Amino acid sequence: MSRSLSMRGSMRSRRDLPPPEKTIEKLEAMVDGGNFYEAQQMYKSTSARYIAAQKYSEALDILQSGALVQLKHGQVTCGGELGVLFVDTLVTGELPYSEEFFGRIRKIYDAFPRISVPHFLGDDYDDEGHQLSEAISAAKARAESCSSFLRAAIRWSAEFGTSRNGSPELHVMLAEYIYSESPETDMTKVSSHFVRGNDPKKFASMLVNFMGKCYPGEDDTAIARGVLMYLSQGNLRDANLLMDEMKEQLKSANSEFPKTDLIQFIKYLLPTLERDAYPLFRTLRQKYKTSTDRDPVFQELLDEIAAKFYNIQRQNPLEGLFGEMFKVSLVLP
Q1: Cα–Cα distance, 183 to 204 (Å, whole number)
Q2: Residue 254: which H helix or E strand, with range?
Q3: What is the 3-state secondary structure (H, E, C) of 72-107?
Q4: Within-domain flag for 87
Q5: What is the Cα–Cα distance from 321 to 298, expressed in whole angstroms?
Q6: What three-state secondary structure class fits 199?
Q7: CB half-sphere exposure, 247, CA atoms < 13 A
Q8: Which residue in 99, 241, 310, 333 could disulfide with 200, CB within 3.0 to 4.6 Å?
Q9: Could you give the number of structural domains in the chain?
Q10: Does 118 fall in a domain?
């Protein structure tokens, strides 16, 4: 009897939850008034009640509204936290990936601030660079918050979508944000998301931009890494597209590829993989080993390429380093 009463009470509490519109309006007013922390706690507690009642649509409306208004006011940590809770609600409700949910995630992503970190000390900075240090710290916080949100979204899209690697569009968004907003750009991480994406032209534009501001010797390494990552997935088409698009963009800018042995290796490698020519592939690896040894990841990627294109089994039958790196990149902050 008591169990029956409890169940009826639970069902009544679900029905008693009001539509979220008034709650959303009230909480947005709190944020507009500067009560960021108090509003944040209410966004979390109110959405939790709707989730407990399995009213996922209402909870998503509350969390999306909160993320957007907090980000509009520059509250990146609060907005990012609500963005992650938005994705967590999709997972809890086992809601499948769709264009509608992707659009809502994109809207939250677009609300994250984009503020370039200065690359030099001008008159606005004192001798100790305090303001520059603050700008870098703020940029790190923005990058970490947005990255956590998008990584959660990628994990959801992998579990409830059609691609086991997650939404290609979400990977491109994460790659773009890390590259443009992080004060300490990790090109390996950027590239790993671009190659899981679906926009080699945008990847090419990023690499051309990187060539204009990187240290000597980093440009050819970044280009080779991107091509080899594509190839390690068996994706010869996008590896060629990347090089072709870079060639066009560099030509338009009156520039060209770095004239290094590593780039020469990549140019020889691509046509080699279009035919059954494992002896030539092996010869190229031996001839250019000094260049490919510059990055320890390259030999691992080349082993994966040999397995993909020529069915040459790896000596160590463990999953490739690139796959492990990608898994880690979705977990680490």
Answers
A1: 21
A2: none
A3: HCCCHHHHHHHHHHHHHHHHHCCCCCCHHHHHHHHH
A4: no
A5: 10
A6: coil
A7: 8
A8: 241
A9: 1
A10: no
Q: What is the CATH number of the domain that holds 326?
A: 1.25.40.10
Transcribe 160-180 into DSSP letters. Answer: HSS-TT--HHHHHHHHHHHHH
Contacts of 322 (CB under 8 A, 6+ apart): 192, 229, 232, 297, 300, 301, 304
Phi/psi at 255 (5° precision): -130, -175
Q: 257-311: per-residue pLDDT in tens?
A: 999 999 999 999 999 999 999 999 999 999 999 999 999 899 999 999 999 999 9
CA dihedral angle for residue 32, residue 100, residue 233, residue 332, rounded to 10 degrees:
30
Its domain, for residue 242, covers 185-332
The answer to whether 145 touches 79, Cβ cutoff 8 Å, is yes
Grouping H, G, I as helix, E, B as strand and the rest as coil, residue 150 is: helix
Q: Which residues contact 266 (CB under 8 A, 6 or more apart)?
A: 223, 224, 227, 228, 243
Q: Per the domain annotation, does 323 fall within a domain?
A: yes
The pLDDT, as a whole number, for residue 327 is: 52
Q: Is residue 201 part of a domain?
A: yes
Residue 220 vs residues 23, 195, 244, 267, 301: alpha-carbon distances, Å? 54, 17, 15, 12, 16
The pLDDT of residue 136: 84
